[in-house]
Design goal:
Structural class: alpha/beta
Helix content: 25-40%
Oligomer: single chain
CATH topology of the largest domain: Rossmann fold
Strand order of the largest sheet: 8-9-12-11-10-13
Number of domains: 2
Order of helices and strands: HEHEHHEHHEHEEEHHEHEEEEEHE
CATH superfamily of the largest domain: HUPs
CATH architecture of the largest domain: 3-Layer(aba) Sandwich
Length: about 325
């Protein structure tokens, strides 16, 4: 089985305390649970570990081609390790994994990852048809010799912090809420590709980012952003949408990097979405659009004027 081959290559040097799940976005709710994990692992002299699925089980089980994701597996691994997790194990979630019983799944974790305990949320479940809920896992733990610690979920202002809540905030362009739930600015990354170059004609040359088709995107509109090119960070204004002034086309992500004049085609560009400026609208003429973009730039400068670590021109 693929899960066995993926688990068997890890070979932890000590017994482990694990959390299992997608952890898409690695938001504050995840950090809350994983904080408990690392504290208990240190107290018990265990390695802290996270098993993260490369695909959301909901997409696999519902036979959907895709489900908008907040982070790639690579981004998730990096974020999880930055929280002090000793062991991050990406697993391919497919119908074969979905069919594994809860008992067999935890036995794989015990055998290949030396699991001595699980840290879970109250609504967590694993195994075939989600049979391994908290009660079942605690029973299995008593029988097989591992602990199960159920952590209360994190709420902010009475609302549950979840990946779904982040996606919902993004769908409304509410970057303040999305960033609050994430505990950091929401990011988009991709290679810079050629576009129709209308921005250059208008006096605002933009870099078009090619993001993965499964990437969650915020509501169409204009955003104050920070653009990361290598180790440098610049103020920027980003338009996400179909450019209705010139006739609706394909959805694109266009970044105007302030005080910047360098050819970056083919390079990777990452933007942090700081704040929503306005919705995307159709202007009566290119001249009206140019005037509005000038206002967007000044509005963005005002938002980004506060000192930000590592930022240039801020």
């Amino acid at each position: 089985m693929q899960i066995v081959s993926e688990l068997s290559i890890v070979k932890p040097q000590r017994d482990t305390l694990l959390a299992v799940g997608v952890f898409d976005g690695v938001h504050l709710g995840h950090k809350h649970l994983l904080g408990k994990l690392t504290q208990e692992a240190a107290r018990s002299k265990l390695l802290s570990g996270v098993v993260t699925f490369n695909r959301n089980p909901k997409a696999v089980l519902s036979h959907r081609a895709s489900l908008a994701r907040l982070t790639t597996v690579e981004e998730r691994v990096s974020l999880l390790k930055s929280l002090g997790i000793d062991l991050v194990v990406p697993i391919t979630f497919n119908t074969e994994v979905a069919a594994i019983s809860a008992r067999d799944f935890v036995n794989y974790l015990r055998q290949y990852l030396r699991m001595k305990g699980l840290v879970i949320g109250p609504n967590f479940a694993l195994g075939h048809k989600r049979e391994g809920n908290a009660e079942v896992l605690q029973s299995l733990g008593s029988e097989l010799g591992f602990t199960v610690d159920v952590v209360k979920p994190l709420t902010i202002e009475g609302s549950l912090v979840s990946s779904t809540a982040v996606r919902e905030a993004l769908s409304h362009g509410d970057m303040k809420l999305a960033n609050k739930l994430l505990g950091r600015y929401f990011k988009l990354s991709g290679a810079v590709v050629s576009g129709v170059e209308r921005g250059r004609v208008l006096g605002f040359p933009t870099a078009n980012i090619d993001v993965d088709s499964e990437q969650a995107l915020p509501h169409d509109g204009v955003y104050a952003t920070l653009a990361h090119i290598g180790d440098e960070v610049y103020q920027s204004v980003t338009n996400i949408g179909k450019r209705p002034t010139f006739g609706a086309g394909e959805r694109s992500i266009e970044v105007f990097i302030l005080d910047f004049d360098r050819d970056i085609y083919g390079e990777n560009l990452t933007i942090e979405l700081v704040e929503h400026l306005r919705n995307e609208i159709k202007f009566a003429s290119p001249e009206e659009l140019t005037e509005q973009i000038g206002k967007d730039v000044e509005h963005s400068r005002a938002i980004l004027k506060r000192p930000l670590a590592g930022a240039k021109n801020v």
